[in-house]
Amino acid sequence: MTMSNIYFDHNATTALDNGVLQAMLPWMQQQTGNPTSRHIYGRSARDAIEHARAQVAEACGAYSSQVVFTSCGTEANNFAVKGISAIKPASTAKQILTSAIEHPCVSRPAAAMQQLGYISRKVEVDANGQVDLANLKTQLKSPTSLVSVMLANNETGVIQDIDSIAETARIAGAFVHTDAVQALGKIALKFADLNVHAMTISSHKIHGPQGAAALILDKKLDIQPLLLGGGQEKGLRSGTENVAAIVGFGAACELAMQNRAQFAAHTMALREQLELGLEALNVNIFGQTVARIPNTSFFAIDGIEGETLVMALDRKGYAVASGSACSSDSSEPSHVLLAMGIPADLARGAVRVSLGAHNTATQVKNFLATLSNEILRLKQMSAIAA
């Protein structure tokens, strides 16, 4: 990699902010205590964790007592699906509903719960990638333990009306969880306004360290523990805390809140510039007519494989994605696009650009020129091969 490479894959992960690193360094370089220890080193570590907990709570409109730290968003989502579903035994509320566009770290644990007698079903979405409330209401006629719908989709960026979804689920007697990993730091986020019982957020999407995330919980929710042991995290997630990563998560949350409005305005302007250029190239842009997080554009070109285009752009110095970074081992078409009714051949051509605070209009302009050249080159190659 050279310094000329341009990073357009911020939904996958973000670079660690230097201010966040500085907050973490004392907890990585100096003698620190176990946060459960009673001496001054342990008490200092405990104070640092609780300060970070308050920073995280402030960032998502919650109380500190509602924040349970985990190692990553995947762990938090597994914790939510398994721990909340188990509140209601399969004998009384068999069904677990997840939207058809959920990240695998929600849909796969839901499917795994079938081994314990639950039934995992998917809620349909419309052509824009938004949950079909009529379909949700129909499915909720069966006794349901949990409904899990992500707030902002990691591929399309499309935002869900979680409040309405949650109210529909609550009326039917179901618990509600939302994966808000892609929303944190990009749109206003207040736990109470979402009307859910649990919400997942993660550090490394907002220039914090990898290895820290949180599940935000309704205080009345009697969720089943994820890990049993020494009783850390209110007895819900035992194990010695990763103090440095948690401190970094807190610092990143504080920075994200300070910069959110500027980030949104900056990346929205870049996305508008990008999509004007994409339209001139006759590119299919997904979810374009509904609310999206400001930094994300998901598009496809007829007749060109997404993975092929991603690699071609990488050779030209642009890091983009063909979908979710966490499921990049699969060459199958995006399950999100298939759920939206996009033909499989077109879905295979999907490419995601997710912009960041340090990207520029010049980078977007040059990217569009490079993209145009690569599309022409790849189509010519296809014509020759045919």
Give structural notes.
Helices cover 40% and strands 13% of the residues. α1 packs antiparallel against α9. It has a seven-stranded mixed beta sheet, with helices on both faces. It has a three-stranded antiparallel beta sheet with strand order 9-10-12. The chain has helices spanning 18-24, 26-29, 40-59, 73-85, 104-112, 133-139, 162-171, 191-194, 243-280, 306-315, 335-339, 344-347, 361-385, and strands spanning 6-7, 67-70, 95-99, 119-123, 144-148, 175-179, 198-202, 213-217, 284-285, 296-300, 318-319, 350-354. It is of the alpha/beta class and 386 residues long. The mean pLDDT is 95. The chain has two domains: 6-14 and 260-385, Aspartate Aminotransferase, domain 1; 18-254, Aspartate Aminotransferase, domain 2. The radius of gyration is 21 Å and the shape is globular. The two termini are 34 Å apart.
